TrEMBL record:
It comes from Formicincola oecophyllae. NADP(+) binds at A69, V70, K71, P72. This is Pyrroline-5-carboxylate reductase. Pfam families: P5CR_dimer (PF14748). Its EC number is 1.5.1.2. Residues 164-269 form the Pyrroline-5-carboxylate reductase dimerisation domain. SUPFAM superfamilies: 6-phosphogluconate dehydrogenase C-terminal domain-like, NAD(P)-binding Rossmann-fold domains. HAMAP family: P5C_reductase (MF_01925). It is found in: Cytoplasm. It catalyses: L-proline + NAD(+) = (S)-1-pyrroline-5-carboxylate + NADH + 2 H(+); L-proline + NADP(+) = (S)-1-pyrroline-5-carboxylate + NADPH + 2 H(+). GO terms for cellular component: cytoplasm. Pathway: Amino-acid biosynthesis; L-proline biosynthesis; L-proline from L-glutamate 5-semialdehyde: step 1/1.
Length: 271
């Protein structure tokens, strides 16, 4: 038995919105896709209806889910305008927000009372390798919470959290996490050049090492700690480096302080 298609309105098709849409188009999910964006151009033949402005949306349009991918600063104003346009047409819709720093309470108020699911994806979603933290408010129907998870799984892994304030920790670890990894690659490149390698060689070594280690973490069931130990021969080169990285005032303390700072800022932005 084939499921009835869900009607999805994607509001905003920038980097994250377009990544989501690309994932949905590749998936086999039964969806009717509508995009609200001034500039998005769909691929030829793509089963997507594009509207440029709110005024282009038919007043009798009835979405099952509105995916909010606009900039956080404009989220409230957009939702208020959408509610003004569609009114009761949103009464059975669920809001899936990927706008960082906007709480369920704020989003529900701005949208005229929609049930809200908050998602915290990260930038590797652009290549289908994202990680998303997902929180569903208590008034979200289970079927809609499941649909939200399916939509985000189209661009990577999904972790559902039981409390909204858990999203601050998600932001600190996976939401901001790619930047930490990119910084490591950047610093390894610079260190390679400091040790005498040319820039292109240092870049290749650093990037492929990060990529390969990431693949091992993804594919190997061993813990990260055990994988680290497997590389570390007693008295060897890796152990010499790790003694520096793992000094009490080095990585163990720095990573904890850095992620606490990110989580604290995520809490502030959600107020």
């Amino acid at each position: 038995m084939t499921s009835s298609p869900n009607t999805i309105l994607l509001a905003g098709c920038g980097h994250m919105g377009s990544a989501l849409l690309h994932g949905w188009l590749k998936s086999k999910l039964p969806l009717r896709l509508y995009v609200l964006d001034r500039h998005y151009q769909p691929p030829a033949g793509a089963p997507v209806t594009v509207w440029r402005t709110l005024a282009d949306i038919p007043e009798d349009f009835r979405p099952d889910m509105v995916v909010l991918a606009v900039k956080p600063k404009g989220a409230d104003a957009f939702l208020e305008a959408l509610h003004e346009r569609l009114g009761r047409g949103l009464s059975h819709a669920t809001l899936l927000s990927v706008a960082a720093g906007r709480s369920c309470a704020n989003l529900a108020k701005a949208s005229g009372g929609m049930a809200v699911v908050r998602a915290m994806p990260n930038t590797p979603a652009a290549i289908g390798a994202g990680t998303t933290g997902l929180y569903s408010a208590p008034d979200v129907p289970p079927a809609r919470a499941a649909l939200a998870a399916q939509l985000m799984k189209a661009v990577g892994a999904v972790v559902e959290v039981p409390h909204e304030n858990d999203l601050a920790a998600v932001t600190a670890i996976s939401g901001s996490g790619p930047a930490y990894v990119f910084l490591l690659a950047e610093l390894l490149e610079k260190a390679g050049q400091h040790l005498g390698l040319n820039a292109e060689t240092a870049k290749l070594l650093a990037r492929n090492t990060v990529y390969g280690a990431g693949e091992m973490l993804h594919e190997d069931p061993l813990s990260a700690e055990q994988l680290r130990r497997n590389v570390t021969s007693p008295g060897g080169t890796t152990e010499a480096a790790l003694k520096v990285f793992m000094a009490p005032d080095a990585w163990p303390a720095t990573v904890e302080r850095a992620t606490e700072a990110a989580a604290h800022r995520a809490d502030e932005l959600s107020q």
